[in-house]
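Whiteboard transcription, Tuesday session. T.W. wrote the structure tokens on the left side:
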């Protein structure tokens, strides 16, 4: 029971801080996700180091910070989109720096370093563009981001409750033995319900758009969870970290977000909403 209350308290504080930062201003939103980005990528690299693998933490963090910062500045309209080109030479500097480091497997180090940025930072960089709508409604729209998380959290909660109550048929036992088809269906229904509710309060997207976003989040978010489980099993660990008492690490908490963002962003970009 004590673990339940620890988990509940951490979750309540976590949700309150996130919603407050997202709602307060575009600057607190960008700072919040810069912090999430940094904590996540450091945690990611430490997982590999614990398994005697050698990502370049400093190079990865520098590339990660520059990619996120430039995307935030461009999305908010603070600077020209041309600033994004700075990320191209920064990427290839990782290859050059590796020449000066004594490593028996230099390209393995390069691969793990870039993987962290692609897996974690790139989705969060795209998140910035989702918060700042183009066209007539240009500007910061916290409702899209809050609505996104409400769907994600509803999906997780619905999947957990439905799985606990009705779960019998395993979804993907090789990577996540506890996940069931019944839980996934419950998560999908909860996500669609929140999509409908979002359409009543966050009118930047119409009902059909919110429902499509809900389906994308629940489907790709589930894959995100499975991918993180695959990562942890490959490294023989239970949790990615312990920064969030009762919830594990940053990767444990945001696994569905990292994989779902690119799909939702692409959909919104195709309909002119990102």
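and on the right, the sequence the group agreed on:
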């Amino acid at each position: 029971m004590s673990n339940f209350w620890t988990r509940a308290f951490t979750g309540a504080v976590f949700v309150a801080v996130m919603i407050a930062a997202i709602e307060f201003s575009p600057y607190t939103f960008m700072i919040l996700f810069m912090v999430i980005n940094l904590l996540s990528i450091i945690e990611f690299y430490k997982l590999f180091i614990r398994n005697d693998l050698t990502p370049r933490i400093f190079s990865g963090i520098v590339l990660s910070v520059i990619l996120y910062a430039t995307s935030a500045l461009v999305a908010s309209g603070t600077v020209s989109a041309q600033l994004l080109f700075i990320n191209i030479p920064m990427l290839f500097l990782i290859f050059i720096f590796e020449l000066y480091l004594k490593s028996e497997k230099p390209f393995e180090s390069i691969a793990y370093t870039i993987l962290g940025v692609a897996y974690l930072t790139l989705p969060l960089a795209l998140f910035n563009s989702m918060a700042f709508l183009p066209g007539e409604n240009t500007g910061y729209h916290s409702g899209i981001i809050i609505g996104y998380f409400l769907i994600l959290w509803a999906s997780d909660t619905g999947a957990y409750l439905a799985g606990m109550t009705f779960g019998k048929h395993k979804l993907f036992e090789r990577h996540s033995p506890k996940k069931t088809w019944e839980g996934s269906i419950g998560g999908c229904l909860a996500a669609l319900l929140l999509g409908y509710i979002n359409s009543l309060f966050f009118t930047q997207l119409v009902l059909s758009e919110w429902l499509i976003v809900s389906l994308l989040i629940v489907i790709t978010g589930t894959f995100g969870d499975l991918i993180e489980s695959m990562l942890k099993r490959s490294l023989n660990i239970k949790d990615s970290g312990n920064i969030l008492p009762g919830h594990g690490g940053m990767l444990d908490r945001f696994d569905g977000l990292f994989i779902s963002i690119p799909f939702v962003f692409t959909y919104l970009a195709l309909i002119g909403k990102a």
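Someone added at the bottom: The mean pLDDT is 90.
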